[in-house]
Amino acid sequence: MKYLFLIILVNYSIFTFGQSNDSIPLPKTVIASIFTWTPLREAPDVASEINYRVPKGALLEVIGSSKEYLKVKYDSIEGYLVYALVSSNTQEFLAFVKYAKKIEEEKYRLEAEKKRIEEEQKVKKIKAERKVGLTKKYGSSAATRIADGKIWIGMTEQMLLESWGRPDDINTTVTRYGTSKQFVYGLGRYVYVENGKVDSWQN
User: Fold this and answer.
1) Is the Cβ–Cβ distance between 114 and 14 less than 8 Å?
2) Helix (H) or strand (E) holding 54
């Protein structure tokens, strides 16, 4: 429930930050300054249709903004273009650029937070499903300890593998009394298995 609320909150925040910036004061005009023919798009999206290409140096009337785009008019043609494609030294325009950049940064932060929450949910789901499977095989008590990465005297070799995973190496000794195994997990961790059950270990 907690994760569901967080995802809804992040989604709402991303949507809100992606809306119009019309509350920010804008300059009355700007100049197309980057390309010889600056694309004027139908919508504030790089994949949207190009309505017209305005010549470099053209004076554009600003009629609004959305996301990091300015809505402008050239002659009688209206369209959107990225604010980075125009120039203006007015305080209003500089304030808009600063605000638009802040919105983009916040949007990326919120998207990263959303992704982090979704990844945490996936991991939690995988752990829960694994716990269910372990409980069916070994019972609730043993399943909890295995899921927590614990080992204990008397646990089976299979339980050990479920808890700590495959070892780096296994040294096997067969005698008339049975089979002994040394599971080598690296970093000085050794687990000793006698006849299929954990007998001792050392770190």
Assistant:
1) yes
2) strand 50-55
Lookup result for tokens 């790089």: 46
Q: How far apart are CA 96 and CA 38, in angstroms?
A: 20
177 with 98, same domain: the answer is: no
Indicate whether 181 pLDDT > 70: yes
| Number of domains forming the structure of the chain | 2
Output the domain CATH number for residue 58.
Answer: 2.30.30.40
Question: Could you tell me if residue 124 is inside a domain?
Answer: no
* Contacts of 165 by beta carbon, 8 Å cutoff, 6+ apart: none
Contacting residues for 201 by C-beta, under 8 A, at least 6 apart: 151, 189, 190, 191, 192
CA distances to 10, 38, 104, 115 from 19, rounded to whole Å, are 15, 24, 11, 21
Domain of 159, in residue numbers = 151-202
Residues 38 and 94 reside in one and the same domain: yes
Alpha helices in the chain (DSSP H): 2-17, 91-138, 140-147, 157-164
Instruction: Read off the pTM.
Output: 0.52
Residue 94 sits at the vertex; the CA angle it makes with 88 and 98, to the nearest 5 degrees, is 140
Least confident of 54-58, 113-117, 122-126: 54-58
